[in-house]
Amino acid sequence: MDRSSQLYLFGTSLLLLQWLIDYSSANSYINLDRSSLTAFKSRISFDPHNILTKNWSSRRNVCSWIGVTCDSRYHRVTRLDISSMGIVGTIPPEIGNLSFLVSLDFSENSFHGPIPPSIFNMSFLEDLNLRNNSLSSSLPFDMCKHNLHRLKRLRISFNKLYGEIPSSLEHCSQLEYVSLRSNNFSGHVPTQIGKLTMLQELYLGANYLSGTIPKEIANLTNLQWLGLHNNNLSGNIPKEIGNLRMLQWLDLNTNKLSDNIPNEIFALTNLQTLVVSVNNFRGHVPIEIGNLTMLRLLDLSTNKLSGNIPLEIGALTNLRYLDMSFNTFSQHVPREIGNLKELQSLYLSNNKLYGNIPNAIGALTNLQNLDVSVNNFSGHVPKEIGNLKMLQWLNVRTNKLSGNIPNDIGGLTNLQTLSMDFNSFSGQVPRQIWNLTMLLTLYLGNNMLSGNIPTEIGVATNLQYLDMSFNNFSDHVPREIGNLTSLQLLFLNNNKLSGNIPTNIGTLTNIQYLDMSFNNFRDHVPREIGNLTSLQTLYLNNNKLSGNIPKEIGALTNLQTLSMSFNNFNGHVPKEIGNLTMLQWLNLRTNKLSGNIPKEIGALTNLQYLAINLNNISGQMPREIWNLTMLQMLYLGSNNLSGNIPKEIGALTNLQTLSMQFNSFSGHVPREIQNLPKLQELYLDANNLSGKILTISMLLV
Predict the structure, then answer these.
(1) Weakest mean pLDDT among 30-34, 139-143, 249-253, 516-520
(2) Which residues form the Disease resistance R13L4/SHOC-2-like LRR domain (predicted)?
(3) Is the distance from CB of 158 to CB of 181 less than 8 angstroms?
(4) Which residues contact 61 (CB under 8 A, 6 or more apart)?
(5) pLDDT digits (tens, 9 = 90+) for 232-273
(6) Is residue 432 situated within a structural domain?
(7) What does the alpha-carbon distance between residue 529 and residue 536 come to, in Å, rounded to a whole number?
């Protein structure tokens, strides 16, 4: 064999040997990857769709398993994605043996237990996503020091991770995206975070971080999104934040930040979202706010900001959402607010704003939510508000507004909530309002409105909450009110309404709170009231109602409060009242009720307040009444009750007030009364009692 042939054979042998070594090595690594994934599979305790159970089979090639991606040369696992599979389990340390892994995504599952430290030893990992699980551990203090140097995206939000954010994170210098939000991290924001100069998005919100915002954050000049909200951060916003010229989204809400909002923030002209709500910022909003012309969302609410709303806010023509509520802004709302044509939500409530609501607000034709409540606005509601055809929520409550409710409001056909209570509106409610068939909530209480409740009320069939209390409405309640079958709350109290309670009220089977007190209603309570089985609170007191208390009231088994006092009810207290076992407050005082106290009242073991005084109740107190051990106030005075006061009264250990005067009780006052530990007021006068009350401090006898 000549020399060239020998060399060829030798070279071929070397190549074959290298191939055999590579094959053997690759096969060894493939088996290592398989064993790592098998170890992972063994830690799965619940696989709701049986994806891994059936697909990850030893008979199949690992690279064909669902969620597994391999490279084409060595057939090593480079990507593992089992996100959003509803899997429950723990992550084993063997997962760190997937040494070729570039991307790991276990997000949107129910993994619990610690993150194994081996994950942080992966040299090729670029994307780690463990968000939305229940993982609980701290991050290693030397994280990124020796490995993870290629990591670009770190997403471990919405878990139960704790401890400090390791300063060694600075060594993951390729990071572009970091989200640690919604965990239990504590301690300070490490200053070393300022070395991650490639960072574009940083989310540390909803943790327990404290201390100040480090000024080193200003070195992150590529940063576009920064979230530090819902922590315990304090001190100032560092003025160096003005270096973040690429910033589009800044959320600092719900911290303990204070002092002025630095002017440097208003140089960040790429900002689209600025949220600094629920802090302790004070001072004025500077005119430089007009520089942020890209802003779509601005939330300054719940601070201590003061002064006027600057005219320059009218330059923010891209704004969709503006919230300046819960501050101490004063003076007028500038008419320039009418320039914000894209605005969908405007919240100015709970300030000290005064003057008229500007007519210019009628130019905000995209507005869906408008809240100017709890201010000092006066004058009329501008008719231009009728231009806001997209409006779903309108709140002008608790101001000094007057005049009529404008008819134009009746054209806001998308309106779902209308709150105009606690003002000085007068005149009649425009009939057009009842044509707002989308209306769910209507609050008109505490005004000076008058006239009758029109039959058109029956058109507003989607109403769930209706408050017309504390006005001067008169005449009958129309039977059409029975059409409002979605109603959950109805306040008609403190008006001049008269006539019968309409029988149609029995169709309001979803109602939970009904107050018709302090009116001039007459005659019987309709037995249809027993249909209101969702009712929890019923006030019929201070009317001119008469007849028997209907036994159908016993069907209201969810009732917690029942007040029928100051009427002309007669007859017996119905025994069916004993069915109301949820009842905490029962007031039947000042009527013409007679007969005995029904023994069934002893079933009301949740009762805290019982008043049946100022009636014509007679006979002895039923022994069952001493079962009411939750009672705090018991008023039985000014009746015709007789017999002894039994020693069982000592069972009422929560009693604070006991009124039994002006009856015909006889015998000795039981010693047990003086042992009632919480008793503060005791009225036993004008009876036929004998004996002594020894010493009861703080009692009025």
Answers:
(1) 30-34
(2) 294-423, 456-568, 574-686
(3) yes
(4) none
(5) 999 999 999 999 999 999 999 999 999 999 999 999 999 999
(6) no
(7) 13
CA dist 327 and 335 (Å) reads: 20
Q: Are 631 and 652 contacting, i.e. CB atoms less than 8 angstroms apart? A: yes
Number of folded domains that form the chain: 3
Contact at 8 Å (CB) between 517 and 543? yes
Q: Based on the fold, state whether residues 532 and 634 are members of the same structural domain.
A: no
For 321, other C-beta atoms within 10 Å of its C-beta total 18
Asked whether residue 361 is domain-assigned, the answer is no
What one-character-per-residue DSSP string does 430-489 give?
A: PGGGGG-TT--EEE--SSEEEE---GGGGG-TT--EEE--SSEEEEPPPGGGGG-TT--E
**Which CATH number fits the domain that encloses residue 94?**
3.80.10.10
Question: How confident is residue 32, by pLDDT bands cut at 50, 70 and 90?
Answer: confident
Question: Is the pTM of the predicted complex or chain greater than 0.85?
Answer: yes
Q: Which domain holds residue 554?
A: 452-570
Nearest to 271 by CA among 303, 248, 300, 241: 248
Would you say residue 345 has pLDDT above 80? yes
> Which residues contact residue 14 at a Cβ distance below 8 angstroms, ignoring those fewer than 6 apart?
none
Asked if pLDDT for residue 18 goes beyond 60, the answer is: no
As given in the structure block, the two tokens for residue 426 are: 């007068």
